[in-house]
C-alpha cells in the first residue's frame, strides 16, 4: 500500500453557555452592592457550582493546518487517542482514510 501524507487541521469548537442565579440566593447579598453579586456568581460558575441554564454552539475556528507524514500522523493518532493505541497500523490508517463525516451515497 502507498505511503501518504495527511493534512491535519486543528480547530477550537466554541459554545456560548449561560448560568442563572437568583440574587436572593446569594449569600449576604443585602450587605453588598451589585458588583459583589456579579463577582460571587462568576466565581460560583467558574468553580462549577451552578447548573447550566442554556447553551448555543458557536462553531469551529481553525487554529492551524499542516501537512504531516504518515509516520507523524500515526504518532499523533496515538497521542490524541491513547485508548486506540492497541489498534494495528492498518486499522488506524483505514479510520483516517475514511475521513468523510457524511459519505456520499
What tags apply to this protein structure?
two-stranded antiparallel sheet, 2 strands, elongated
Mean pLDDT: 92
* N to C succession of SSEs: EHEHH
The count of strands amounts to 2
Beta-strand content estimate: 25-35%
Question: Which regions have little confidence, pLDDT < 50, spanning 5+ residues?
Answer: none
Helix % is: 25-40%
Oligomer: single chain
The major pleated sheet works out as:
2 strands, antiparallel
In order across it, which strands form the biggest sheet?
Answer: 1-2
Coarse morphology: elongated
Helix vs. strand class: alpha+beta
Give the distance, in angstroms, between the N- and C-terminal Cα atoms: 26 Å
How many DSSP helices? 3
Query: Rg from C-alpha positions?
Result: 23 Å
